[in-house]
Predict the structure.
Amino acid sequence: MFADSENVDGNVPVATYKEGLPYRRRDSGKGNGFPRDRKIRNLNKKIYQSLPLLAHPNGMIRNLNKKNYQSFHQFPHPNGMQVTDGKHPSEQLSAYNRLLRAGRLTECVELLEDMERNSLLDMNKVYHAKFFEKCKSQKAVNEAFRYTKLIPNPTLSTFNMLMSVCGSSQDSEGAFQVLRLVQEARFKVDCKLYTTLISTCAKSGKVDLMFEVFHEMVNAGVEPNVHTYGALIDGCARAGQVAKAFGAYGIMRSKNVKPDRVVFNALITACGQSGAVDRAFDVLAEMGAETQPIDPDHITIGALIRACANAGQVDRAQEVYEMIHQYNIKGTPEVYTIAVNCCSGDWGFACRVYDDMTRKGVVPDEMFLSVLIDAAGHAGKLDAAFEILENARDQGINIGIVSYSSLMGACSKAKNWQKALDLYEDLKSMKMRQTVSTVNALITALCDGDQLQKAMEVLSDMKGLGLSPNCITYSILLVASEKKDDLDAGLMLLSQAKRDRISLNLVMCRCIIGMCLRGFVKACTLGEPVVSFDSGRPQVDNKWTSVALMVYRDAMVAGVMPTMEVLSQVLGCLHLPYDVSLQDKLIENLGVSADISRCSNLYSLIDGFGEYDPRAFSVVEEAASLGIVPCVSLKSIPVVVDVRNLQIHTAEVYLLTVLKGLKHRLAAGAKLPNVTILLPLEKTQLLSPKGGDKTINLAGRVSQAVAALLRRLGLQYQGNESYGKIRINGLVLRRWFQPKLHVSPFMGKPGDWSSSQSRLGKGITHQQRDIRTGNLSSE
DNA sequence: TTAGGGTTAG
């Protein structure tokens, strides 16, 4: 029963107030890490805004500088033990206040609890609101509950503040826990408490629960006010439920509660979120049409800009931004951040926004700088990006990893790996705690700059920086290794990723399988042995095929849906090489002696028809069951095999799978239908000598491959592949499946089928085990 | 000693 051990204030795990469920800080989430992510930025903002003095649990100082280091040592030990030892309560309370100012909430609570154990605590001497305020800014629900427990006679306002902490932390469970505590203490739940509860549900995305609370409130005879409706509409807005938002607004109007700017702003946000830009402007008009007109504020402007930008109306967003001047709004960094971010393709506009802000004396915060640097990066203005940061630093603005991460992203976008590497070294020497996304941006820059070796060095550096590479790190590196066709590097990355418990994604899977296919094709071309007969049956057996199949399997297990491209590549790795001696060996392996010169179509007897490893069928059948390739009905007349949207290997195996199915139907005594194969066509324009263009159809690569396959198999077809459709006659097919064998006298009489049939029969039994009924053939 | 609103890429 411990709270998140990596709390923002970097403290030791603590027991929770609530029994059973541990409270977790909501802002320490995991992100995808490329090039930055919201959660990390939020976390960083919290860290830099509220906690200038950070100590890591292991005693390392996170935000390293001398001043911080000194102040760290002014504080008592995190375990709080030596604080109480023989010290006067007033001294302990001033220690408490110092800790509170530093935002070290867990230690604050521990100190108070320690005093309580020693019967030295008088909670009347502690200012409650300040503690709850800090809890709100740090989303420290757990500490807030523990603190409340120390108050001997909590009032309704105490619970209101506690509830408010839950609200800011989006902890609806905690909020309902507070409600229970209030009821247990026999207080009457007031409007403020209900409103905060509604707001908590709103922030946690629980719209239905929110309305339940609202109705309960009304039923309990508590009158909702403008704050309550504000929270309600906000909840609808966050959930993108415009209709409900206006519904709540309607109730509010019908109860004669006068809407204020907060309510209108929430309505505009709701419209913007669901793409209803015009309606957002209607709300703006409504604000001005009130008996006492309400001017827009910076939040209105921000919401309107976002509404426009969400709908792709960048020009309109820029017009809205100008309203800042019209209404003489000074604004806060947030609204300027929205403006730059929503129009980040327009570097000139971003610069104007930055100027306006500077002129109005609004100090940019880290988030704004980060977005501005992004915009510079998008515009390819790498020097400008560095300048922005230098200027900010000169102005004494606290710059953290969020902005530096954007700068790294800008280096990466500008494909300037040297600058990226310099920045990385600078960050290391500044002892700036880097994030995975920063390093991912560096690795991207290095890979783009064809510096795979350096990128791999950075990867091995990461662990030393206390960073765990994520799936994006490995994806970037694998893409680079594929670009260089460096399978060894790829396999090394793959095994390292496995060790790091990074599950395969499509990018990683595609890169490895792509390299495997290239390696396999090359080996086939060079005549290297890639097939073994060890199991008695021909099997494509080599390292490339094994790795490709393994990665394909692993990806499926990890829940990755393979694409047609990946499927085709895997099948490519199961393709038997065109090699006369191999073909002879395949026939020989059948164990029938036949006059090959008279009978060229023995391929129908071989598993995989001498073209593919039989495992290819299972792969395609599985792909059909997953909907990656369409299913074929073997019962329709004619059987239609549509390979128009398939790649070469897939098209080939797909067709062979149908043939295999029909072979089994024939063995079961069915009459074979005709088979129609639909082939893709490529149109090309011919200049006719008489003038005017003429469009003709050409057989594409897939069509040619399919036709060539049928010719190799000795299976006759009608029609021409350049018409997009060919046909195999059912009778022809039957004869092909039942070749007349000239069997050697040692094996039986000529024309005697028994031995080869029994062999064939065994083969079929074996194959039938692999077949999933209802997959490819929807019988 | 108490309540409602915003900011980040691909």
